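ok trying again, last paste got cut off:
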Amino acid sequence: MLLAGCTTTSDLYSVDRVDARAYIMPDGDLYIEEIVTYNFHREMNGTERYVETLGHGGIEFFEAYIPPDGKELCRFCQTGLEFFYV
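nice, full thing came through this time. structure:
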């Protein structure tokens, strides 16, 4: 069965690079910083991302920012960055 007009995620965008650092805090919390580089194949306003909780209490603190061009992970701070609404 073929449905006209259907697209797959790979038709819309690709993930070209992921840089991540994870830290286990003294209280056992997991702190993660990451930069995900998307390549959109057509005009889009963004994408959605899901995190599976797998039975734990969930995410308590989450912020997303658009990083400065050309900066690497941990080479800039959040001050003055554009907040990305999630």
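cool. Helices lie at 9-12. DSSP finds one helix and four strands in the chain.
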